[in-house]
């Protein structure tokens, strides 16, 4: 059975991936702050700023590493430089979860797999730095998976919305930003397919259609909470801005494709009392 190590397996996306893959592969993960993982012998404590990843990898001996890490940018870059060097000189492969923010400078159009990256944000530039290092590896060694906004009933974004609705606080929306979306369950199924079929290259994993950020949040508020909200409209530019990643070259099968309405529907499965 293939051994997989998920870095950041206690986080929102990483933990959903762990639950999706654990029944099919010999799956291990790292955690940082969350309690409850120390008793699981498949989980290892890992602090990027203290190091120790090499010893974890030596113990686990994974054939595939999935990076769902979050944290200080400098520590993330250093950790991924170590990982990329390790992948280059071993028979291990890497799946790196990147972001639509690597294209956050662009206006007028969404972005596809092999478009030029350009970012105005610190977050986007840090992702580009890691992507550029990753792309120097032999193509068979890696998957670069770019994600749009990822939702889920237990996601940080939804927790923030729940708190805002519960306390009648304004919700930030971006009227001139056009997005596509994903959720944790659909994303984990897409990653599972990529692993199972040993795919490589650059993948854009989001809904096949686009929507304005403000419209998506309004629809979600109506479906999830069934009442009105207070909105704070934020304009980062006078132009329309696309924060959307669409697939053109590396498309997944139709059963793994979806629209933003399906993401909305999944977010209404848990009823909230507000």
3D structure, described in words:
The chain is of the alpha/beta class. It folds into two domains: 3-149 and 180-204, Rossmann fold (3-Layer(aba) Sandwich), CATH 3.40.50.720; 151-179 and 210-243 and 258-266. 34% of the residues lie in helices and 20% in strands. The chain has helices at 12-21, 53-60, 73-88, 122-134, 156-167, 184-196, 213-225, 260-266; strands at 3-7, 26-31, 43-45, 64-67, 93-99, 142-147, 149-151, 171-173, 177-179, 181-183, 201-204, 211-212, 231-233, 241-243. The protein has a seven-stranded parallel β-sheet, with helices on both faces. The longest helix has 16 residues, at 73-88. The mean pLDDT is 92.
Give a short summary of the structure.
This protein is α/β, with parallel strands linked by helices and about 270 residues long. The protein has helices spanning about 10-20, 55-60, 75-90, 120-135, 155-165, 185-195, 215-225, 260-265; strands at about 5, 25-30, 45, 65, 95-100, 140-145, 150, 170-175, 175-180, 180-185, 200-205, 210, 230-235, 240-245. The protein starts with a strand and ends in an 8-residue tail after the last helix.
């Amino acid at each position: 059975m293939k051994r997989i190590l998920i870095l950041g397996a206690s986080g929102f996306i990483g933990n959903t991936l762990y639950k999706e893959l654990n029944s099919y592969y010999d799956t291990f993960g790292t955690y940082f702050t969350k309690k409850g993982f120390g008793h699981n012998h498949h989980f290892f404590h890992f602090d990027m700023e203290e190091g120790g990843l090499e010893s974890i990898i030596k113990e686990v001996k994974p054939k595939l590493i999935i990076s769902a890490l979050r944290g200080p940018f400098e520590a993330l870059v250093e950790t991924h430089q170590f990982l990329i060097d390790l992948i280059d000189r071993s028979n291990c492969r890497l799946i790196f979860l990147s972001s639509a923010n690597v294209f956050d400078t662009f206006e007028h159009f969404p972005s596809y797999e092999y478009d030029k990256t350009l970012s105005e944000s610190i977050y986007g530039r840090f992702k580009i730095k890691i992507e550029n290092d990753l792309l120097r590896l032999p193509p068979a060694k890696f998957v670069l998976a770019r994600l749009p906004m990822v939702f889920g009933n237990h996601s940080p974004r939804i927790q923030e919305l729940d708190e805002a609705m519960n306390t009648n606080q304004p919700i930030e929306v971006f009227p001139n930003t056009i997005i596509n979306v994903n959720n944790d369950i659909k994303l984990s199924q897409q990653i599972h397919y990529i692993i199972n079929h040993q795919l490589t290259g650059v993948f854009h994993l989001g809904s096949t259609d686009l929507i304005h950020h403000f419209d998506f949040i309004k629809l979600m508020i109506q479906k999830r909470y069934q009442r009105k909200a207070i909105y704070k409209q934020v304009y980062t530019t006078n132009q329309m801005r696309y924060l959307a990643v669409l697939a053109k070259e590396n498309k997944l099968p139709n059963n793994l494709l979806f629209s933003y309405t399906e993401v909305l529907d999944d977010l209404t499965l848990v009823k909230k009392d507000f």
